[in-house]
Fold this protein.
Amino acid sequence: MGDDVGVAEVAGWAQEFSQVEALLGPRFGRREPRARAVGYVRSLLAPLERKNGWTISEATGARSPDSVQWLLTGADWDPDLLRDDLRDWVAGQLGDPSGVLIVDDTGFLKKGTKSAGVQRQYSGTAGRVENCQIGVFLAYATPAGRTLLDRELYLPQSWTDDRDRCTEAGVPAEVGFATKPELAQTMLARALEAGVPAAWVTGDEAYGQVSALRRMLDGRGMSYVLAVASNQRVHPTAGGEGQPSEGRIDDAVAALDPRCWTTITVGAGAKGPRTYQWARAQVRPLPEHASGPEHWLLARRSLTDPTDVAYYLAAAPAKTPLRELARIAGVRWAIEETFQTAKNEVGLDHYQVRRYPGWYRHITLAMAAHAFLTITRAGTRPREKGGSGASPTPSAS
């Protein structure tokens, strides 16, 4: 029986990868670049320690890394069109009306000054200022799995103010400065306009504190739970016991009745269940959205240290329970885990290209590889004894 299951699983993985080949095919007009792209994604899935030009060329049987570099820098194909195809494939395979769109960024450590967008800047990945590139990403989480839908390379003003430097790195003349939240808004708009089924948006305080992003989601009728800083200004609904009419969110939370707090577990963490105390209070929305969903301030407090509090702004239908808001806040960690698996399993950060177009090409192909793993694992879960949800990593050979 064990051998039969193994054969069935391998056949299933092969069938899924044929979907990747079908995904890549229409974006390459000639056979050679199409084959190179398929081989590149296969190599990203292979158990290689480093997935760079040399190791990928060896894995694909090429004599040198030149063909790999050519795929990323010289071949005629548009990674944005492939991104759109990838997004539609993921939505078709994993899509769920309860899906959550998650925005966040991650750092790619680099040496030198030539890689597009590189400079000494804070990297949340490293937890400190490093010489790095920053990629802003949109992830998608549903009960079936989680993967990346979209990506944008952040270009600091030190780059966009120097057009000669941009030209040398292959940055198109029409690409100007955009903040990370503005890049996130662009990606969210693309996903929503493409019809990706989703009920929620979430993100950390770098994105939640930006009123323009919240306003955009309110305007589209999207529910959200977005982290904000402790000094975020809020307007609690008038009449709440002990509530100030306007002020900082941490003061509003401190004034809550102690009976407002509820202990809720929002999922499993690296050190066990993520169990906290949660509370909320209604806040006034922007005037133009006064007739829309309810708006709340939301707070998460440590069970062991009452001074350890995280703050959020949320918008959702009036009868949304506190437990659901807490769950969505916890889903944000899905993108951190996705970054980790994408870097460890499909070489998201293993690229050696410096130019702007090459970054998008590698990242998009790595996203395709990660989506393949996610979709394949989702497909194996219903067949597994006991429904544990665990599944072996598919072979790329």
Notes: Residues 2-199+336-387 form one domain. The longest strand covers residues 128-142.
